[in-house]
Amino acid sequence: MNKTIYFIANWKMNGNHNSINEIERVLNFFKKNTIYKFKKIIFCPPSNLLTSFRIKIKSKLIDFGAQDISKINVNNGPYTGQLSAKMLKDSGANYVIIGHSEKRLIDEDFKTIKEKINISLKNKLKIIFCIGENLSQKNKGSSLNVLKKQILSSLDVNKINFNNLIIAYEPIWSIGTGIVPTNNYLDKIYRNLKKFFKEKYKVNSPIMLYGGSVTTDNVATLGKIGLISGFLIGGASLKSTSFIKIIKNYFK
Ligand code: PEP
């Protein structure tokens, strides 16, 4: 069976109105190259660009997501600086990234992450839920325990619909550093996560992605990890040329 491979572009705090050209180039590539059937492309630009990108890129070939959501569980109201689930949906997002380590570093704890996940699910936004250990946790050999704890503190056992949840394993020590874990390391992590999800959440095949310094050069090697269903890509997703090449190299 051919499974869908996700290529999710996390633009972080980058991009402007001209960046639509990058997305258009990706779209044109897939319009011309119809052999790439089993893939899902999702762009997560900063929220101020979502509406204009969605209006211009009206195509089923590309989907959009936000990088954050308010933890306040109402559609509108006196909450300065907040964007509700309804607002995100109105602006074109079908997905939302929650729990990214860069956001956690600024102001997000796991109680908040859980609230945001539940609000998103209730509002039919699909979630890209990020987990990952830092370097000192890795060096202590506690990566798996850290990941399990992050999952248990964020995902309510009886509430989660795994059709609407994508898990992105992003070791913090790999994000933006150019350092990528070995396939052995990753194999062990994903095998254990799969087992854990089955035991705790009764789900057989959760969608699990890898994120952290994915490039045109390492994507083919990372693609050999049987349990992953794609990639969350930061830096290398900003330019259409490298983003397209990552996808080409994966399917080569
Ligand atoms: C990310 O921050 O989600 C990410 C994977 O970044 P990078 O690819 O730049 O390491």
What is the mean predicted local confidence, pLDDT?
97
The largest β sheet comes out as: 8 strands, parallel, barrel
Please, how many helices?
10
Number of strands: 8
What pattern of helices and strands is seen along the backbone? EHEHEHEHHEHHEHEHEH
Low-confidence runs: none
Report how far the terminal alpha carbons are from each other.
18 Å
Helix/strand/pairing class, anyone?
A: alpha/beta
Ligands (ions, cofactors included): phosphoenolpyruvate
Summary tags:
252 residues; 16% strand; eight-stranded parallel beta barrel; 10 helices; binds phosphoenolpyruvate; single chain; 40% helix; globular; alpha/beta
Please provide a written account of the structure.
This protein has helices spanning 20-32, 47-56, 85-90, 101-106, 110-122, 135-139, 143-154, 183-201, 219-222, 240-251; strands at residues 5-10, 39-44, 62-66, 95-98, 126-131, 165-169, 207-211, 230-233. 40% of the residues lie in helices and 16% in strands. α1 (20-32) runs parallel beside α10 and α7 runs parallel beside α8. The model has no long low-confidence stretch (mean pLDDT 97). It starts with a strand and ends with a helix. By secondary structure, the protein is α/β, with parallel strands linked by helices. Phosphoenolpyruvate binds at residues 10, 170, 175-176, 211-214, 232-236.
Mind sketching the topology for me?
Blueprint: E1 5-10, H1 20-32, E2 39-44, H2 47-56, E3 62-66, H3 85-90, E4 95-98, H4 101-106, H5 110-122, E5 126-131, H6 135-139, H7 143-154, E6 165-169, H8 183-201, E7 207-211, H9 219-222, E8 230-233, H10 240-251
Parallel strand pairs: 1-2, 1-8, 2-3, 3-4, 4-5, 5-6, 6-7, 7-8
Helix pairs in contact: 1-10, 7-8
Bound molecules: phosphoenolpyruvate.
Phosphoenolpyruvate is lined by residues 10, 170, 175-176, 211-214, 232-236.
